[in-house]
Amino acid sequence: MNLRADDGLPMSQRSSEGVARLLRKAILDGRLQPGQPLRERALAEELGISRTPIREALFILQGEGLVGLTPNRGATVRTITATDIAEIYALRAVLESHAAATAAERIGEADLNLLEEAHHRLERIGAHGSAPEQADADLQLHATIAKAAGNQLLRTMIGQVHAFTVTYRSQYPYSPEQVRRANVQHRAIIDALRDHDAARAEELMREHVSWSRELALTHFTE
What we know:
With 222 residues, the chain is mainly α. Helix content is 68%, strand content 5%. The protein contains 9 helices and 3 strands; from the N terminus they run αβααββαααααα. α1 packs across α3 and α6 (131-148) runs antiparallel to α7 (152-169).
């Protein structure tokens, strides 16, 4: 299954959540490839646990869009298509523009400081970082905005679509020009949040996600 031996789970992590965390990491860093079968028996033997937490973990990852479950065929790592990308970014545009507008109305200095830290991290990583590093830093900034909105259900929904997005983003690094444009857009969004300009923050976030969508679609053909 391409899981390193040092990924074995200690007793305290042999739950469905622990297994899901392990498999999620292996999917995102490319050790488990799109279309690769995820057989319960083989995973259970490799990790030294029963099949029950494996099965539950696969259901968790199915809900995140990372794993496909097919009757009589079992689980496979999800293969992302152009249609998937278009749909997930359309959903992100709706959810995250609303989160930005809501956050602008209530954001405090603590969350603004977290946003600045996330933005500086993105700038430090730049185009020299790996695709997974870029993806993690980018989505950390977006997740911070979702948190600042103060709506737990909205935050959960955004987290779910981010889990799907990071699968794609972890495979394709941004070029120096793409990094520059993303940072300019993020800077403008943060400034709108700091000014408590809800309409501006909403508009900028929608434009940013739309730009990201068009960039993502260049990597896919049906």
